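Hello again,

I reread your note about wanting to compare the complex against the isolated chains. To keep things tidy I'm splitting this into two emails, and this first one only covers the full assembly. Below are the input lines as submitted, including protein chains and any nucleic acid or small-molecule components. They are followed by the predicted structure of everything together. The single-chain runs will come separately.
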Amino acid sequence: MSIERFLRSSALPHIWCPGCGNGIVLAAILRAVDKLGLEQRKIVVVSGIGCSSRASGYMNFNTVHTAHGRALTFATGIKLANPELQVLVITGDGDSTAIGGNHFIHAARRNMDITTVIFNNSIYGMTGGQYSPLTPVGSKATTAPYGHMERPFDIAALAIAAGATYVARATAYHATLLTDLVVKGIESKGFSVIDAITQCPISYGRRNKLKSAAEMMIWQRDHAVFQKVAEMKPESLEGKFVIGELYHSSAVVQEYTAEYDKLIARIQNKGGG
Amino acid sequence: MSRAQLMQGNQACALGALAAGVRFFAGYPITPSTEIAEILAELLPELGGKFIQMEDEIASMGAVCGASLAGIKAITATSGPGFSLKQELIGYAAMAEIPLVVVNVQRMGPSTGLPTAPAQGDVMQARWGTHGDRGVIALAPSSVRECFDIMVKAVNFSEWLRVPVVLLLDEVIGHMRERVELPDSEEIEVLTRKRPVVSPEEYLPYKPDADGVPPLSAFGDGYLPHVTGLVHGYDGLPISEDAVVTDELIRRLHTKIERVQDELTLYSDLFMEDAELVVIAYGCTARAATAAVKEAHGQGMKVGLLKLITIWPFPRKMVEEVGQKAWRVIVPEMNYGQLVGEIERYIPRQKVISVTRIDGELFTPEEILRPLFVAAGGERA
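Full-complex prediction:
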């Protein structure tokens, strides 16, 4: 069935710039929902602030466009209040790892069944191209006119270290893979993170010798190494990044809301106290 | 058998929330409000409710917003520094019209201040703490029993009008123990947000009814609303720079509260019939004020007390009437003089006497009697 039924036609056209990769990531999420046959009324999409987070308004589910960095806090309240809801979080690299960084690591540690897709374009796009915690060293940004000095986070490594039970990465170029990874992230009962590398030709590419969306997507193609290849040939990773399923906890890690329901049952069976 | 119990204000507050139907609490430890979290961590799961301690004050405010949108009555509790951090999402809840209650057990500030000392320094922060303009409801109990009753009211007001309501306690009200008898559940009036009656196709999540309040669906019940902190139209979707829609929305955030101000105005008074000198007080200060007024009245002075429970929206009509009859109005506050500024908007300044304490110590009745006697032009007997 067409994924158009998951879009709010009245909210379109979108606000994204020509060549922006956010639409590809959004479509990958919608295709994942379609593939899984999830019930529309049970889906809640929670987003923060920034270009990517505007996606929630275009999606015909229960949607919340929250405050900058806070999407995961709302998502935590929603999921705990009603565990039957399927909670998806849409966020950007700045939203999730700068202003929302504390919420990100604690959501991973807590392990509620929430799937987070990070639209990672290495820049603050909505405010016009300031550096984010994902901006590579040496890149130009409006607030790094002489080249960026700080090292970027590795979102996947951060998520794994903090306790996320499913972590994956793909790019806008690898849209089919991205869809498959979102499917697996939703299926995984715990906190899932999908690092979706996407292009911002206007606020990042133009300043960094990647003049068009096509050039940026070719860059994504040429710098991505499939997880299986990376395992076999670690030397192929020099200056590149791994895509695919990066971590899927094999250990049984208790999902928070299921554990809380067990707690309620245990206490109520005791007749209180 | 007597049903009287010895109970702390924070405990009464927690029990009031449960009586009002609250089934979700998210918070972060902070003195002097922590008992509310501790009690609800124990009691909520017994009732099938949920408790979570979040990673910070902002996160707990976000979780409460989320739980409320999922259809469950939700509250948080904090104190000064945490109340500052929560302002961001209090503004969000005002804009997105999310019912919830924030308990602020006030302590001496600014900053970390005196964590275990009472104060009334957050009265204006409750009104203006978040950026932008909106109507506000803030209530201040002054006894343990009132903590229970006013918490129920706070939840009811938030559900009725879809607003974040602030319950302003202070360290003394929160920690002091009094003998109380709590009402039976059938005696307690509990309000719950109105749900949409139209079909999902017809539902406009921000189209207000005649009372200025839009019905609220719960996530999962099929209405698929969009919720945002951006200025939005009736459909909940952001609009860009439409002056008419913006004006209507921001005005409505005020007027939905103003139009029912009489019903929101909670107060009590003492000897007001022929009072020439009036003390206006709230929170813990009202306790010393009550003792002072009783003492002065006993000595034959024409003195009365107006105890405000509803601080915001400010009961201006009532205060204006007091100012017309009274010769002097004395306003004791445990701050440098906050609510007195509001009172002076409605009562000529020359009639108003501000009495302040900003040392973390409670007023004694004596300290309120003294300006009463000075105002009366007589010496203390």
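For quick reference: The first strand of chain A starts at residue 43 and ends at 47.

B.
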